[in-house]
């Protein structure tokens, strides 16, 4: 005698205890096998494109990516502003050795910051949910990830402070060149009023520009200030990107700690359940 399945039993209960015939049971089983897969396929196909887009977007570390883009924009503006500014400054002062170290220093700083920013982007990606649940699923890996994020946070703090100091340094030439718009350089020389500027008063070489030379110096200085303003704004953008990185690292660190606490709680619950099963078995 064949045993009745759950579907036949349910139909029998719905019929108030009346047993179904063999044909009715076969028909009911056929309907069950045909209708249920179609419903599942229909439900799977009803997934919207927006849901898929949000699922893909959840895998992207948006915070770290935005900070990395801001960093690249700042590095590009800093490179262009300082290279053009240093060359025009040499032409304005007629001194080829002025700021001779600028190109070498700039290459080292830009390359180093690009490597550091890319490293922070990669660490931010693996430390962001839901990637961190697959990468740091054990307690030891989670502790290592927390230590790495703490180290990067301290490093970003020191690096951000350095870029704030660099922004202050870049504000000095902007301030000095802005004096060409506001200060009065008129002096009396041999009973004649003329405009002169003495660079020794501003910590530069013992040069002076008077008369027609001062007019050329003033014109080139007003064009040069744009390059240094771009470099100053780019330096501030780099500092902002590092602050953004610190915010992202803080959020990732909090998520890693919560994941570790949840893992420990789940382990404790599992141990409690195992002890309960053991007691019940005994």
Task: Walk me through this protein's architecture.
- The chain is mainly alpha-helical.
- Helix content is 78%, strand content 5%.
- The chain contains eight helices and three strands, in the order αααααααβββα.
- The protein has helices at residues 6-14, 22-45, 49-58, 62-93, 102-127, 131-135, 139-182, 212-281; strands spanning 186-189, 192-198, 208-210.
- Strands 1-2-3 form a three-stranded antiparallel β-sheet.
- A hairpin with a 2-residue loop joins strand 1 (186-189) and strand 2.
- Helix 4 (62-93) runs antiparallel to helix 5 (102-127).
- Mean pLDDT is 77; it is low at 12-18, 37-46 and 266-282.
Topology:
Elements (H helix, E strand, L loop, with lengths): L5 H9 L7 H24 L3 H10 L3 H32 L8 H26 L3 H5 L3 H44 L3 E4 L2 E7 L9 E3 L1 H70 L1
Antiparallel strand pairs: 1-2, 2-3
Helix pairs in contact: 4-5, 4-8, 7-8
Record keyword descriptors for this entry.
282 residues; mainly alpha; 3-stranded antiparallel beta sheet; 8 helices; 5% strand
Summarize the structure.
This protein is mainly alpha-helical and 282 residues long.
| Low-confidence segments | 12-18, 37-46, 266-282
Compute the average pLDDT: 77
User: Reading side by side through the largest sheet, how are the strands ordered?
Assistant: 1-2-3
**Overall SS class:** mainly alpha
H/E series: HHHHHHHEEEH
Total helices: the number is 8
Our measurement of the CA-to-CA distance between the termini, rounded to an integer number of angstroms, reads: 39 Å
Radius of gyration, Cα only, in angstroms? 36 Å
The major pleated sheet works out as: 3 strands, antiparallel
Q: Which range does the strand content fall in?
A: under 5%
Anisotropy-based shape: elongated
Number of strands: 3
Helix content: over 70%
């Amino acid at each position: 005698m064949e045993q009745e399945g759950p579907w036949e039993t349910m139909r029998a209960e719905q019929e108030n205890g009346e047993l179904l015939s063999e044909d009715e049971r076969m028909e009911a089983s056929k309907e069950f096998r045909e209708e249920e897969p179609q419903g599942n396929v229909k439900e799977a196909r009803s997934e919207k494109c927006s849901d898929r887009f949000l699922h893909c977007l959840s895998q992207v570390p948006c915070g770290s990516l935005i900070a990395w883009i801001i960093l690249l924009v700042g590095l590009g503006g800093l490179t262009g502003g300082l290279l053009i500014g240093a060359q025009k400054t040499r032409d304005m002062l007629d001194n080829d050795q002025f700021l001779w170290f600028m190109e070498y220093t700039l290459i080292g700083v830009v390359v180093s910051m690009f490597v550091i920013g890319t490293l922070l982007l990669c660490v931010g990606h693996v430390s962001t949910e839901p990637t961190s649940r697959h990468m740091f699923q054990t307690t030891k890996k989670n502790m290592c990830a927390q230590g790495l994020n703490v180290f990067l946070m301290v490093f970003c703090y020191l690096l951000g402070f350095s870029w704030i100091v660099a922004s202050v340094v870049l504000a000095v030439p902007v301030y000095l060149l802005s004096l060409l718009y506001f200060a009065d350089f008129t002096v009396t020389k041999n009973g004649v009023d003329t405009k002169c500027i003495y660079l020794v008063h501003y910590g530069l070489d013992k040069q002076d520009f008077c008369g027609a030379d001062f007019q050329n110096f003033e014109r080139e200085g007003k064009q040069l200030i744009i390059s240094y303003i771009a470099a100053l704004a780019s330096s501030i953008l780099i500092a902002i990107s590092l602050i953004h990185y610190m915010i992202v690292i803080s959020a990732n660190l909090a998520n890693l700690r919560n994941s570790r606490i949840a893992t420990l709680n789940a382990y404790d619950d599992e141990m409690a359940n195992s002890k309960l099963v053991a007691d019940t078995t005994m």
